[in-house]
Amino acid sequence: MIFNKETAKKTAEVLLQINAIKLQPDTPFTWASGWKSPIYCDNRIVLSYPLIRNYIRETMARHIEDYYGKPDVIAGVATGAIGIGALVADYLNLPFIYVRPEAKKHGRKNQVEGHIEKGQNVVVIEDLISTGKSSLNAVAALKEAEINVKGMVAIFSYGFDVANKNFEDANMELHTLGNYENLLEQALDTNYITKQQQDILAQWNANPSEWNAN
């Protein structure tokens, strides 16, 4: 769920402003999976804009303290959330770790990089939620290391039903600064898209596999 409507609106505004999110319902993008999509999101671009990255890090930090209290450690999901996760940890004056998709094959063979102790409380930072599988893989690695995961905070979520189910099945709380529904509202309000394009974008989000079949 989003933290609140005001944050979701502002987050959509800044992500569209710097083209971290692009909407092209008439000329869809091709994802790595091969799917056609009318939206492309790369929140790593946030790091290149000091004012906007400061907004994201301070808003995330404030909401983390409001909803979870101050954790012992902040964790970022590699690789997309390492940058923003480190910024949030720095703002909160907390230690930072990050979680790889899988353990390294050499050296210490770590999946969790950085210092954290069993039983410590951690909030996980993610940049983008699609199906949620890679994000929840990081949560599972932390839990396996006997770390208490209080919740996850992400910049943006596509709001897919499958992601909602995956987080519910994992009994993991997720909060996001922005989501797809509020993104479309902001894009329409600022004439970034037309009402017809909004309808196309909403159809894709409701059933992306069927949209691709057409």
TrEMBL record:
Domain Phosphoribosyltransferase positions: 52-148
Residues involved in orotate binding: 130
A Gene Ontology biological process term: 'de novo' UMP biosynthetic process
EC numbers: 2.4.2.10
Cofactor(s) it depends on: Mg(2+)
Annotated signal peptide: none
Transmembrane segments: none
HAMAP family for the chain: PyrE
Described purpose of this protein according to its UniProt entry: Catalyzes the transfer of a ribosyl phosphate group from 5-phosphoribose 1-diphosphate to orotate, leading to the formation of orotidine monophosphate (OMP).
Protein name listed in UniProt: Orotate phosphoribosyltransferase
UniProt source species: Winogradskyella luteola
